[in-house]
Amino acid sequence: MPTHAAEIGSPAVRSLSRRSFLAVAGISVAGALAACSGAPTGTKHLRLSSWNIPLDLETYQALADEFVAAHPGTSVAVEVTTGQFHQWFITRLAADLAPDIIRITPQQIGRYAANGSLVDLTGAVPAEYQDDWSEPFWAIGAKADGLFGVFQHTDNFITYYDKRVIEQIGVDVPQTLDEAWRWDEFLEIAREAQRITGRYGFGYGWSGPETAYRWMPLVYQNGGAFLGEDGETPSMDTDAAVGALDFGRRWYADGLVSPANMSKSGGGAVGRDLFTTGQTGLLLDNPEAIAALDEARPGEWGTTYMIRNGGEASDLGGNALAVTRSSKHPELAAELVAFLTSRTNVAEFCRQGNWLPARSSLDAADIGYERHEATMQQFIDQAATIPLSMVRAQSGPYFSSLNSVFADYLDLCFLGELTAAECGAQMTEAMRSVTTR
Amino acid sequence: MSPHGETLTVPGTPTVVTDPGSGPAARSTSAGTTTRRRRARWAPYLFVGPAGLLFLAFSLVPIVIAVALSFQDTATLGDGAWVGADNYRTMLSDPLLRTALLNTLVFTVGTVPTAMAIGLALAVALNRPLPGRGLLRALFFVPMVAAGVVVGVIMSWIFNPDYGVANNALRAVGLDGLPWLTSPRTAMMTLVLVVVWTRIGFCMVIYLGALQSIPSELREAAAIDGASRWQRFRRLTVPMLAPTTSILLILNVVFSLQAFDVIYVMTGGGPGFSTTVLIQYVFRSAFGDARMGYAAALGLLLVLILLVFTLLRQRATKKAEELL
């Protein structure tokens, strides 16, 4: 009787084994290739990609499952947008593998609407939808040549304060938008806050170079704009814009804000970290700070409206939903976008994720936030101060590139490398090289 | 000759079968020999085939596409307009490119000699019998295997001016904290410091291997001839390490020119433009500014710089070896 080793080692068995292996490998590869090719199975499959926020992913999937239940023969998978957005999206578009629907910020949508990467949703979204969006929020997706996305939710800035610090200062907190602190009042309070904390007065809610635009509302609060009325002419060298830059420069020159709390060279959400750890008395930030504050300092903080000067403005945060040109089922994808942005579903999405609704008819009570309903209503009220001209400029075709310019020059100005006037002039020149490209 | 008595062949050269057997028995196996010979002819291609295919798919084809892209104006991939040499002309008058090139030079000069010198010093120190030598070698090498993004995030915390370990340590000994990453004057120095830290383990390991290959007889002979420890190091060890130094130099320069992740995470090229190096500028042009054609042209400039440097270094090494 041959030994087991001899059986294995015999040429016949070795040959058979090799052939079997190759056959199995061949079948496996063919199967894998067939799977990758997306061979038609009769089911219309959609992919929706969102930022990696677990609660949102769950809500999208739950809503998508409702959609699928009402649309037999369809399926929807929720995916995560990974890494740097433009790198991720451009390479997938090039491979024609972009998801059917993407969650995209107002600052990112303009480039892709202009270069044909997004599908025109005109006619696919119910006409009456526009009536429930403010003009600025509808303008995020609505361009001259079509509707390239529907704004789903926003998350603008208001002012957080440390109750202990404000009590010690003895200042009344604004209760309405009309009472919001003006710049000079705010700086005075911030100086007092700095004295009490022993470190800094306040923090600003940047979280990286891609969020440099979050400072732009200050320009509009001062009556300026970073692009002219034509939406193309850079205007950061006007008196109003230079005045805003000078205001920002004073934050750092006077030591009211940490130099690490900067959009480009800062280390992430530094402003939020400093406020959470009691090293600042005030924070200008969006609702995303609430979760961290509830965990670190429950009951020790309050909120009031965003600061203002001659005018009012707040950050344009949030996301739209858009259909990409890679979609094999654009009509169905557009239908899903309309479903997700229905009044009921916007309310559900905002309730689950603590977001602010893009729909004007929804207030905090309608949504039924589990916590901080008054604060969420402040955010919703503040959203009405976001100017249309800023929205048009930020959701325009140049903005993704202009944002890099803002990140570069805000650093240089605020760190004292450039005066406000020099910064305004150089920034305008750099912006011009983008808009005339 | 192989251990089995067959001459290994390369395609295109005459094959000589040196089977130790001869006569009728050998003739009867001629058919099998021909099959083996045919297999032997294809074997080298089969061995290099997978690597060749990978090189073709992931190196050569992308380079060709990049060259084509560099003559186009396009915000995305695949649908550009041909603009001739416009992108290359733009490079000549681009002030940010000049800044990026200068920063790249500063970064490379700051990181490469420092990492190599410290790596050599550590290799010499750890080449001697020391307690815990193995552990120390491993500890110095750990930063090299850590992911750049992880290193970048951790270092951002360490060098945070408000709550970072670095400034807390300085304050603990009565010194003022430094604006490590928040000043255009210190950010590049901090990056150099971090990158050197990640790279000294690699240099150390390569130098350790080279040191151990130097015959001990040479050192002993030099010692008998009266050479001091420094003279033995300067006149014997360093020249014997020349080929290793050459390879390390090329590798380190390539690493420095390609250093992206740590810089991207720690400074994003800022404050201002103070740490924007060429590879950062390529990425920014491609995905931040949506200028794929221009980014491809910048990428080819980077390739050209690497190519010129490698050729120069190869010539210098050849001359050094001739002198030896």
TrEMBL record, chain A:
Please report a single Pfam family linked to this protein: SBP_bac_1
Q: Which CDD domains match?
A: PBP2_TMBP_like
What the entry lists under InterPro entries is as follows: Bact_solute-bd_prot1, SBP, TAT_signal
Matches recorded under PANTHER family: ARABINOSE-BINDING PROTEIN-RELATED, DIACETYLCHITOBIOSE BINDING PROTEIN DASA
Write the protein's name. Answer: Sugar ABC transporter substrate-binding protein
Q: Which organism is it from?
A: Isoptericola peretonis
Q: What is the lineage of its organism?
A: Bacteria, Bacillati, Actinomycetota, Actinomycetes, Micrococcales
